[in-house]
């Protein structure tokens, strides 16, 4: 295989020969073309691909899959349904979520009961739409795949529920109902995190 053919093959897969580092500004193509011309381009078949861990599970990924239920709190009160602390030395991605209501006295979308996903007590950066969830995103047995959001070491991820007195019916009259929640995703070691970290 000629050096030029190896260059074209590598470029088509976004590969960079060892020693060229990571870049996304087009410099990879220039470096590879130079290496091809000089005859120093390595065979891309033997070059290990590097995929961003936020998009593809790395070899050493660790599962996150948590679900539980809690009693509906009094009107005007908040309940922590689910809580997870990201381990030290790990970052992660949440890919699926679920929340549901079990029992009577609540209608989807009314706002009488509101779920919120929080990271360190605030909406996840880049995923602020989860600050006010008015409907079920699937029961915990069948979570909904979402665009995903990132979590970082030592952060506290919570799924909370609020019995909203400002709802059209003044909230949900408590009668032993339960609310559920689920997080599903994965962690990976921080030492493989990319330098140009995305929130």
What's the mean pLDDT score?
A: 84
Radius of gyration: 23 Å
Q: What pattern of helices and strands is seen along the backbone?
A: HHEEEEEEE
The gross shape turns out to be elongated
Please explain how this structure is put together:
The chain folds into 2 domains: 3-46, no CATH class; 62-192, Jelly Rolls, CATH 2.60.120.1330. It is built from 2 helices and 7 strands. It is elongated and about 75 Å long. The model is unreliable at 6-24 (pLDDT under 50). The chain has 199 residues and is mainly beta.
Give a short summary of the structure.
The chain has 199 residues and is mainly beta. It contains 2 helices and 7 strands; from the N terminus they run H-H-E-E-E-E-E-E-E. About 10% of the residues have low confidence.
List the main descriptive attributes of the protein structure presented here:
199 residues; Jelly Rolls; 33% strand; mainly beta
Furnish the topology, listing elements before pairings:
Blueprint: H1 3-12, H2 27-38, E1 62-71, E2 78-85, E3 90-102, E4 113-119, E5 144-151, E6 156-163, E7 178-189
Antiparallel strand pairs: 1-7, 2-6, 3-5, 3-7, 4-6
């Amino acid at each position: 295989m000629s050096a030029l053919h190896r260059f074209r093959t590598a470029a088509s897969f976004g590969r960079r020969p060892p020693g060229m580092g990571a870049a996304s500004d087009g410099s990879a193509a220039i470096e590879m073309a130079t290496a091809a011309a000089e005859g120093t381009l390595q065979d891309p078949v033997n070059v290990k691909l590097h995929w961003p861990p936020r998009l593809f599970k790395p070899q050493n990924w660790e599962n996150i899959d948590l679900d539980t239920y809690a009693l509906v709190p009094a009107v005007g009160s908040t309940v922590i349904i689910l809580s997870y602390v990201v381990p030290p030395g790990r970052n992660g991605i949440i890919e699926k979520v679920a929340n549901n209501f079990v029992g009577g006295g609540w209608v989807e979308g009314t706002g009488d009961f509101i779920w919120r996903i929080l990271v360190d007590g605030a909406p996840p950066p880049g995923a602020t739409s989860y600050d006010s969830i008015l409907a079920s995103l699937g029961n915990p047995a069948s979570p909904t795949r979402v665009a995903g959001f990132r979590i970082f070491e030592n952060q506290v991820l919570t799924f909370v529920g609020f019995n909203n007195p400002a709802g059209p019916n003044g909230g949900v009259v408590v009668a032993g109902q339960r609310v559920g929640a689920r997080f599903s995703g994965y962690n990976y070691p921080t030492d493989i995190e990319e330098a140009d970290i995305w929130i």
